[in-house]
Automatic annotation (TrEMBL):
The chain crosses the membrane at residues 20-40. Pfam families: TseB. Keywords: Membrane, Transmembrane, Transmembrane helix. InterPro entries: Cystatin_sf, TseB-like_dom. It comes from Streptococcus suivaginalis. Gene3D superfamilies: 3.10.450.40. Residues 56-94 form the Cell wall elongation regulator TseB-like domain. This is DUF5590 domain-containing protein.
Length: 165
């Protein structure tokens, strides 16, 4: 045991050992700094989500928020999904600029899968994601396919617009 400690000490005193220790310390500092900066950059969004969640719970029949999504269109909206006392699935879309709230029962419109199908009918290939948002005062599904966005009316399922390349 004593010999192994002596050999480790000898290695750490060698030039190669010192280089490896220095490299390890530099890598540790870089990785730690990366994660610290990542957390620091995400913090404002998380703070906004928490603040708007309090607004949703205080001003809508949603009892508990189950999921949150972000829509970035002409204006950014956070979509808060939850249930009311009767168990109905609701979504509240809140503007991050003026706390405007759009509330809808999810059964009052088309489902995400149907919106994705409508986008495919209008040229979408691989669907990356679909998120509820607000476009010209109406609820829409924004379906992203590669670098193109398809806006589908939440209430009627009509194709509204295609944006992007």
């Amino acid at each position: 045991m004593k010999k192994s400690l002596e050999s480790v000490a000898r290695f750490l005193q060698s030039t190669l050992g010192q280089w490896l220790v220095g490299l390890f310390i530099c890598l540790f500092v870089l990785v730690f700094s990366f994660f610290f900066l990542l957390d620091l950059s995400i913090q404002p969004r998380k703070d906004t989500e928490r603040e708007l969640e309090r607004v949703v719970l205080a001003n809508t029949p949603i009892q508990a928020v189950e999921d949150i999504e972000l829509y970035n269109g002409q204006e950014s909206f956070y979509s808060f999904y939850g249930k009311d006392e009767a168990g109905n699935d609701l979504v509240a879309l809140v503007s991050d600029q003026d706390d405007t709230i759009y509330l809808s029962d999810l059964s009052a419109g088309i489902e995400q899968g149907e919106a994705e199908s409508r986008a495919k009918e209008n040229g979408a290939t691989q669907i990356d994601r679909a998120v509820l948002g607000v476009y010209q005062e109406q609820l829409v599904w924004e379906v992203k396919s590669e670098q193109t966005y398809y806006l589908i009316s939440f209430e009627s399922g009509d194709f509204i617009k295609k944006e992007g390349l």
